[in-house]
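Help!! Second protein's tokens look totally different from the first
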Amino acid sequence: MRESQIFDRASIHEIQRAANEGIYRIRGFGAKRAVPHFDDLVFLGASMSRYPLEGYRERCDTDVVLGSRFAKKPLHLKIPITIAGMSFGSLSANAKEALGRGANEVGTSTTTGDGGMTDEEREHSNQLVYQLLPSRYGMNPVHLRKADAIEVVVGQGAKPGGGGMLLGQKISKRVAAMRDLPEDIDQRSACRHPDWTGPDDLEIKIEELRELTGWEKPIYVKVGASRTYYDTLLAVKSGADVIVVDGMQGGTGATQECFIENVGIPTLPAVRLASDALKELGVHRRGVQLIVSGGIRTGADVAKAIALGADAVSIGTAALIALGDNRPDLAEEYEKLGTAPGFYEDWQAGNDPAGITTQDPELEKRLDPVKAGRRLANYLRVLTLEAQTLARACGKSHVHHLEPEDLQALTIEAAAMARVPLAGTGWIPGQNF
């Protein structure tokens, strides 16, 4: 027997499913196709030409300041890893609380999401970023003032150009009240902000937000990675303090699979394109900060993203896994849903046995926010220690001292996208011959 490269088992299954159901596939998680990623890069550790730092007696700092361009009160984070925006509705209230608890323990920020701010996440998040989305669901000027920063979401890596989705089984009484929607009815968020149509309008909107909050809060602009260079230029022109670029490996609570796998560009080239735009404007690490997200899993990913120009990274899918998503001890529960630990992706369905991507009161009880927050904090500490270890090996006393010259690529594709030499050569495809 020989499996077709084109019509493999997954393709045949999807054709059969579409023929039976007559509707496109909606799921959560993120892109599963293989694309060039940080795994395709390696660090050049110090040897004769550079000295490494001793881990037990020489410091390697990890702090980062976000929003120093215009805001009176920029965020001071102890680690360069933040928690991405994920909505209450997509996630349970206990999950939102756990994210805040975990972020607090290590001195970083978390972010709201579509649908507004819950009391739990505000109470348990010392530094909370409030998302302003095209849907305006849950938009509340009081909450804007309660936030520590504001993120204007233009796009998301899993679906640039598309809006959010929340299926009826997750529209509980509380979610419906916060979003001013009927219960149990599928909700589709707008893909375009109603208040502005271009950078000039956005500049006015950002100024309104600054006046509303006394010019205290940093203003982020988040874009899904696609035309990243120009999007970054326009976001800076509009007055953003922080640019958030989300690559195509970024997660989602619910989106059409054709979107997840086929729209946007990988995180790897997006980092360089965004940092190029900031350098072009003379603001890279001089006033405007860059946060990169989409497929960050390890401290090596963190260090490589920073070496390519990011000031910080943001995690979503990895944070949910740290809370307890896809846990092996829930194997029997996953089997009842026709899946297994490590494969569960139906975050849209509302029947998550881990109690994270659900609004079912009984399932939600399975997630202890204190224990889950502790697991997240442990994971964030490991990411930070790994990034420090790699930076020290390159002779750096701060992770922000990492630079593209510390990296080489293992594949031609990664070399071209990250614009670092192919390992063992001086060749950067497309730049020199």
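Here's the second one for comparison:
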Amino acid sequence: MSEKKVQDVVRPNVVDGIEEYDNPLPPWWVWLFNLTILFGLAYMIWYHVLDKPGLDAELAADRQEIAQKAAMQKPANASADDLAALVKNPARVEEGKGIYAANCAPCHGPAGEGTVGPNLTDKFWKHGGEPDQVLATITDGVPAKGMIAWGPILGQQKIESVLAYVLSLQGSNPPNAKAPEGDAY
């Protein structure tokens, strides 16, 4: 005995000459609707009744992990002379060149001539031109100007390599260099 499906039955209500069919909803739609209700109930029970960890807890854990990594990558109090000596290490300069090209060149230009960021090839610096000051600028960034803190991302060794490369750019006079900004060092 199969039940005969009723299709295209017109409801008795007519509003402004518009008639309405009284067809049953498609089964796939009813199943999807019921699954949505079950998902909503499970979600509410999981996060609000059982108080299981959610996105806020994951975010807090991620932030704590990043803070721990940043604390481990703090500078080892290298002296300004030690940092300046990095320029004489060709391996560190070459490593810094690659890191610079991948991360710094979009703002400072491929040759350090400055685009959005300042020119890195002249003797003028906006945030200090001593090696330890440049290192601090790279490590902590300049959030007010849009430069992120690279310390937690790259780590101390890579930051020092970038410093070595940036210091090696001094006096290179690339074409189309940006006008000097900041104080002379």
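Reply: Different proteins will give different token patterns, so don't panic. The chain has a mean pLDDT of 87.
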